[in-house]
Amino acid sequence: MPKATDLTFTNKLNQMWTGELQPGEEPHLGRGKYEASRFEQGFILQHYAGKVEYRTDGWLEKNKDPLNDNLTRVLAASSERYVASLFAEYGDPVSNVSGVVNLLTVGKKRGIKKGAFRTVAQRHKEQLSSLMAQLHATQPHFVRCIVPNNHKKPGRVDVPLILDQLRCNGVLEGIRIARLGYPNRLPFVEFRQRYEVLTPGIIPRGYMDGRKACLRMVDALELDKSIYKVGTSKIFFKAGVLAELEERRDALLFDIFSRLQAMARMWTARRQMKKVLNRAVAIRTIQRNARVYGELRDWPWWQLYTKVCHYQHLICLRLTDDFRFALFLPLPAMTRNCKRRRLSFS
Q1: How far is CA 205 from CA 202, 213, 252, in A?
Q2: pTM of the predicted protein model
Q3: What's the CA gap between 318 and 315, in Å, rounded?
Q4: Of the candidates 235, 222, 224, 243, which has an alpha carbon nearest to the alpha carbon of residue 193?
Q5: Are 217 and 196 a contacting pair, CB within 8 Å?
Q6: What is the pLDDT of residue 329?
Q7: What whole-number distance in Å separates Cα of residue 231 and Cα of residue 187?
Q8: Kind and range of the H or E element at 343?
Q9: What would the DSSP string read from start to end of 280-330?
């Protein structure tokens, strides 16, 4: 805008964004986000965090792009009259001076370096480029501090205040944008290693391309195609899909480890029970042998048998089958057998 001022710039903005539409003209999408300032020279824009007021005092001067001094001097000395008239005010004021004076004048003008002047937009662009280069070279982590209440007292939560802070910090807007896209992503190798347990037998043994393996896995998991996308090296998911897969994986692992623990506990319990049963059988055997010994220790033939066994290395005595059989008979039968042998000896 030639010969424009901050006031004319503000009026033109107000006319453009809040004025009446021409017949057949469609309203701009951002028309509802613009509002003229009531008391100050400026305008108001509706951001996602809220309304922000901008002052236009000195707006044109701050955003004025200066022309290079050498370029304007060359255009002012152009042979085209029209071009020279456009840049007449940038021409040399004195043209009939000596060459030394011209050199000094040129030296002075070069020392001013008007072209080196940077506008606010240029400085903002350079700072933004430097910040983006630094962010790409590092792995930043952002910590957002939230004030729970204005009284600085514990145990009090002001919900509208917290929501306003989250909205102004861009957290809610970032969450909304992330939910519209595919915020969760995993490389093929990591996805296969972590969730292959949910699809047993789907991937054959041997080498298989990571992309094909992931496609088989998502088909076996019965995932809707609208909630995931498969790229060249990663697989992308909508918000909440990985959380559901993690729940299914945790449930499956809990079932597997529960069965493993049950089998281990069953084996240890059976082993302990077997030891108890063996001890009970051993105790009953010892008791039975003790009772048999108590019944046989006064029997003469048993005393003779024990003495023979004691001197076994001196006398080789072979017991008859009847006598060995008699040792395993019950006490009444053994008594009758002994009585018969006594009668036979007498």
Answers
A1: 10, 11, 22
A2: 0.43
A3: 9
A4: 235
A5: yes
A6: 46
A7: 9
A8: helix 331-345
A9: HHHHHHHHHHHHHHHHHTT-HHHHHHHHHHHTTTT------HHHHHHHTS-
